[in-house]
Sequence to fold (198 residues):
Amino acid sequence: MPMERPDSNVPKVESENSIEGQIAEQEAQLQENTKSFLGKAKDFKDFLFHGPEILKGEYPVEQSVDELIAEVNEKFSSRVKNWPPMLGMMFATFGAIGGNPGGVEGLQIGAERALEGATLAGIAVAALWGVGQLKARIQGRKENNK
Amino acid sequence: MQTNDPQEMLVKLKEEIESLKKTDPVAYLELLKTLNAGITKINGDIDAALGG
Fold:
């Protein structure tokens, strides 16, 4: 009786399980990280919701853009540059994953509760920006692999 | 044309992410890892900025 080669079918199944397991693990971790973030974020709601507008000089508030940027830079230095797209992806993914809060409704409710008084439009713009960047990066990686 | 309706934008985002999970789970996993690394850094930055 021929022996089954160890690298025939088993590794493929293990690989799929591994990806699924890793996804579940990362989703759980993201939810915990997001809860932690939301607990901190209320102190930074202006920046978090208007990051893209700030960086484009379109922040519609009484405080001048220059003053706001100076305030943000004073607190966070150059680190702010990477925040808006990262935040956008985080919230978009968190909303898509589901859980508590989950889905679009959960995302909206969670964002409203965590960042009281801010506009959802700001975070949606950031999220779209983040997804767009992700797509471009994945596309670039695929083209590089050709 | 980009919509200004937050709810509509969020619905589109949800569809984008859910589609990515189904069509390219490896890319979705990469997204999750990137997000977790990013949010860990952001949380650390906030703690540092607050002196915590």
